[in-house]
Amino acid sequence: MDIRNALAGNVALGIALAVFLLLIARANRSFLRDVARDPERGWRLIARLAVFLTGAFIAWTTLRDNWRQLVALPYHLSHRFPSQRIVLEPPSNAVRIVTVALLILSLVCVACLVARHVGGYVIQLTLFIGALVLWAPLFALRHRLDTELALSFGGQMDSLTDILTFTAYLLITWLANAAMIGLMYIILLVPVALPVTLLLGLIGRREPRTTHEADAFFTAVGRRAAASPKR
């Protein structure tokens, strides 16, 4: 297979998505550490399940399904005539069933963590509305980038300038697709997280987000107070 086609393919996109998510997780490792160290064992188990199921969903879609077809599914279903909903080389029904099942399980587990650790109704609705507003322009941008990428690389492989240009364009395309996948996930996640948030609030099992950003400051203040001469 041509290296350029491979880089523009579904597997490369899935790997890029995984790398972007790992970078985001690394930037928020303090918060994720607090989630993983929840004082209740059941919630620690849910956090592990969320990571496992989301990872399984990403791996399965990367290897067996198609990311671009998946995020474009609402657009295709919105067409009036069946002829406009035709998708070239779609995955089998069995593959798509597994994809949807893994997605639902991932959404349920992540929704529980969002309801417990992230925020209430205002934050969730803000994320939902923001994702909806950004969906259409990002979908158009992603589609244009993918179309141009599908036309293949027109430069010379022995030209450093052409290679750097293609690499930059490929990274932008991966980023746009990853952002599109993230928006779709948020749009599906919030309707699941809202009733979970209500349920946890009614039974008193929600807790505010725990952070340790000010620990160093308060530790220093405490040491200074302890070292001060008592009157």
How would you summarize this macromolecular structure in one to three sentences?
By secondary structure, this protein is mainly alpha-helical.
Find the structural class using helix and strand composition: mainly alpha
The total of beta strands comes to 0
Shape: globular
Task: List the secondary-structure elements in sequence, H or E.
Answer: HHHHHHHHHH
Mean pLDDT: 84
Which strand-content bin applies to the residues?
A: under 5%
Q: How would a textbook summarize the main sheet?
A: none
Count every helix, treating DSSP H or I runs of 4 or more residues as helices: 10
Low-confidence stretches: none
Residues in helix, %? over 70%
Describe the structure.
- This protein has helices at 3-7, 10-27, 29-36, 41-63, 67-71, 73-77, 93-118, 121-150, 160-202, 215-227.
- The protein contains ten helices and no strands.
- The termini are far apart.
- 76% of the residues lie in helices and 0% in strands.
- The mean pLDDT is 84.
- It is mostly helical.
- α7 (93-118) crosses α9.
- The longest helix is centred in the last third of the chain and has 43 residues, at 160-202.
- The radius of gyration is 22 Å and the shape is globular.
Helix and strand layout, with pairings?
Blueprint: H1 3-7, H2 10-27, H3 29-36, H4 41-63, H5 67-71, H6 73-77, H7 93-118, H8 121-150, H9 160-202, H10 215-227
Core attributes:
231 residues; mainly alpha
